[in-house]
Amino acid sequence: VNSCEIQSDPDGTITAVHVTARSGRSPKQIARDIEAILAAEEGVAIDHRKISIAQYGETELAPAQGMGRVSLSGVSLHHAPAGLEVEVVLSARGLQATGRAAGPGTRWEVRRTVAQATLDAIAKLVDGEPSFSLGEVEEKELGDKRVILVCVNRSLGRSESHLIGCCQVGFDPTQAPVFAVLDALNRFLGTLNPREPVEYEIGPAPSLRG
Q: Which range of residues forms the domain containing residue 196?
């Protein structure tokens, strides 16, 4: 699976699951896997007819017009007495944006603060709607591996959908939340228009230190 979008009605009932995946497994098998995971991990039963699967071959998808694919340029963390300050630098089509976020300095909050800074950088790259906000951020064991899972809320007018991304925790665990957010969003970001650079946005991040 390359990307997944979950749509729900106002009471939280899942109305549709849209998945893109590489070829190699049949759409029916992928749909059954999704049903099984939702039932086992979340206790949610879903009709397989609400799951749509789009597949593509081993070659990369053609680059979309607009902003194109977003890449990570750097992550920096500063542990201050009042908490943690994070900066995430993203690049797209020659543009660069620095996202900033602050939060508690505990191990479990670091990943959420990094993910929030990633969305702040994305907001500085994207021109106009949709808007993105951070939902759940979790770390899970998958066999002998650790993965970061994020849910990003995508709002466009009165419509809201939930995008899921994941990334294996590698040598630098602070980068995993960034790549998990990008995994959730890159499919959509490539179709959006980049924001014109604004010079005054390059100022220093607000400090938590008194």
A: 71-202
